[in-house]
Amino acid sequence: MNTAAFAIFQKEERNEKREKRKAPVFWQDKGASGAGRVASRQPAPRQGNTGAPQNHRLDKITARVKPEIKAELQRLAERGGISISAAAAAFIERGVLGDIVTQTETILKPVIQETIRQELGIFSNRFLAIIARVAYQVGFILVLFLKFLGVALRNDQATLHRIERESETAARVNVTRRTPQFDEVTQRLREALEGGES
């Protein structure tokens, strides 16, 4: 039993007793007609403890514990204002629920890890296919372009190096610039990754 809840129940009972003591006194109205209870052939229904939950069935168990464990349970029970049986039941319930959580984690952990591994593998395969294609095409175009420039410039190394420097500077500036063309390519790549194309 939760000690905090038990303390609240105790406080409510004390408040109810205090309100009963403060109840106003009403004088008898002698002119009113009698409103006594009408006798019934059926017995009145049994009034149970309406405050207790009716759908929780408790089974009795017996366990042997070390004296120091019993003493600690007794101390906790007295501090919480509950019986030692209720204190022991609370600890048993907490331990069982903790064991269930541990078992669930043990079962689910490899399943989750395998699922993540599979998803990462699928993503990596798709992503690497795109990267490989880009790397191949860029390398091919770069070599082809350098050879073409060498022929066009008639092996003018100074002009070729100047063009390389200017191209490198422009590439660093443009690498973070977004354009409609860049957004279109990004969307196409996203659709390719989500659709499983390589």
Structure described in brief:
The protein is mainly alpha-helical and 198 residues long.
Structural commentary:
This protein is an all-alpha fold and 198 residues long. It has a domain at 119-195. The protein has five helices and no strands. Helix 2 packs across helix 3 (84-152). The two termini are 60 Å apart. Mean pLDDT is 77; it is low at 1-9 and 48-52.
How many strands in all? 0
Low-confidence stretches: 1-9, 48-52
Helical region count? 5
Largest sheet: none
Give the structural class.
mainly alpha
N/C terminus separation: 60 Å
Q: Determine Rg (CA atoms, Å).
A: 41 Å
Write the topology of this structure:
Blueprint: H1 3-21, H2 67-80, H3 84-152, H4 157-174, H5 180-195
Helix pairs in contact: 2-3
Task: Write out key terms for the chains shown.
198 residues, disordered N terminus, mainly alpha, 69% helix, 5 helices
